Amino acid sequence: MKPGSRVHLAGIGGVAMASLAAMLAERGFRVSGSDSGVYPPASEMLRASGISWREGFRAENLDDRPDFVVIGNALSRGNPEVERVLDEKIPYRSLPAVVEDVFLPGHRSLVVTGTHGKTTTTSFLAWILHVAGKRPNFLVGGLVEDFGKSYSLEGGAEFVIEGDEYDSAFFDKAPKFLHYHPDDLVITSLEFDHADIYPDFSSIVLQFQRLVNLVPRTGRIFAWSESPAVRSVASRAFCPVETYGFDPACDWRAVDLESSEQGSRFRVAHASRDLGEFAMRLFGRHNVLNALAAIAVATSRGASPEAIRQALSSFRGVRRRLELRGESRGVLVVDDFGHHPTAVRETIAAARLRWPGRRVWAVFEPRSNTMRRNLLENDLADALATADAAILGAVNRSQLLSETERLDPARVIARIRQAGPPAWSFDSAAQIAEFLAREARQGDLILVLSNGSFDALCEKLLAPLAR
Predict the structure, then answer these.
(1) Does one domain contain both 288 and 380?
(2) 428 and 345 assigned to the same domain
(3) pLDDT digits (tens, 9 = 90+) for 148-168
(4) Comparing C-alpha atoms, which of 436, 380, 378, 370 is closest to residue 405?
(5) Helix 409-419 with 377-384: angle, nearest 10 deg
(6) Final residue before a domain boundary, out of 264, 293, 314
(7) Is the entire prediction scored with pTM above 0.85?
(8) CB 3.0-4.6 Å disulfide test: which of 18, 67, 268, 298 passes with 303?
């Protein structure tokens, strides 16, 4: 695994895999890939790096015998490329293992973890260190608007990386973050998620406990202390732990929070020290917490309050986080990656702060492996009920789940209506678009919430609204 080696990425179309491909190419590896459907932003990133890929998975994609193959975590036994790799004993690795072996050595590993806010917090931290002149390396699971990409290899001492708790590959069932050997670790939150691989909340907690146990005594943990689960996990650390939040007992505190149509303003206190006021374009208490975690880590890495202030005020955010996709007949269409009840609730609240006075339609796709199931059905309904009106899309790949474990849209809609707001469910994005074209009126805001494309619902919405 040295520059000049020939590497093939099977499953190159995901944002993380496309980022890894571009990083390998930048380091001098000869890169190829394959996937079934490669779309923006991954396709844009690959083209910008001069990387070509083959459409579809076929054994002959490996005819030129790569030195090693990176197998994406969406692939499993039965995939023709996986089978050829195993038959011919071609060396293979998971994405996080390649990051661990090729990119992390020689750098201080700053790992951001948690159920919510990982991508935004990682992006905040990378941007702050960049503005502070630290030349950070980073890898994040979204496109950072300020960098125009989701990774950078600037060559500085720090490597900032989003630490996902999802498993690494079919042959590497450990969470990705266990590969990243954190020196500094952020834990933003801890809730049940990823129901396809974790049977219960305690099994997720166990993985975070294992991660905390990897932080060296010379490292540091920054923990959101207003979560009992986070506090419990962090209490097992062998290194110093610094807490952050709104609570006066936290080591790092956000106080005097104010919101306007321009963004958020707040003061930061660390122990008995007042670091002054900070302003940012992002909205919502959850984004203040994300910023606060990044401020704490960046300060520990030598960034000055002035550099942090400059970085926060200029930070444009991450694509698909309250991203305005268009306006038609006075109706705003906004796209967001939110796919967990807590994220849905916080995103709706942030949308009200950013666009006050508008009627908010929350349109949710049950797509993730957790939300396709009925485990958080009531929590989802209660979160959607904080909007003025709610629409539920079809359960993604519903045929793969039994009726007893599958989310029931009728129950979700009934609970939302019982709470007060009107609510509907539809079987397709096209039906949702046509319905909203009739029902939405000038001044409304349509908030599309999904961790997938929702069958291009944002685009489908704008055309009928114009009619």
Answers:
(1) no
(2) yes
(3) 889 999 999 999 999 999 999
(4) 370
(5) 40
(6) 314
(7) yes
(8) 298
Q: Cα separation of 80 and 15, whole Å?
A: 22
**What span, in angstroms and rounded, lies between the C-alpha atoms of 9 and 72?**
7
Asked, for residue 1, whether it belongs to a domain, the answer is no
Look at residues 144, 117, 414 and name the one whose alpha carbon lies nearest to residue 287: 117
Please name the amino acid found at residue 201: F
Spans of the chain, pLDDT less than 50: none
3-class SS string, 179-207? HCCCCEEEECCCCCCCCCCCCCHHHHHHH
pLDDT in tens, 83-133: 999 999 999 999 999 999 999 999 999 999 999 999 999 999 999 999 999
Cis peptide before 41 (omega within 30 of 0): yes
Q: Compute the distance between CA of residue 67 and CA of residue 149 in angstroms, rounded to an integer.
A: 27
Radius of gyration of the chain (CA): 22
> Residue 178 corresponds to which tokens in the numbers above?
């266990």
Structural domain for 17, as ranges:
6-93
Torsion of CA 404, 409, 414, 419, to 10 degrees: 110
Strand-pair category, 172-175 with 167-169: antiparallel
CA distances from 239 to 217, 223, 242, 344 (A): 4, 12, 10, 34
**Strand pairing class (263-270; 252-260):** antiparallel
Number of H helices, E strands in the chain: 14, 23
Count: domains in the chain? 3
Nearest Cα to 13, choosing from 36, 32, 47, 31? 36
Tell whether 180 and 110 lie within a shared domain.
yes
Q: Within 10 A of 228 (CB to CB), how many other CB atoms are there? A: 9
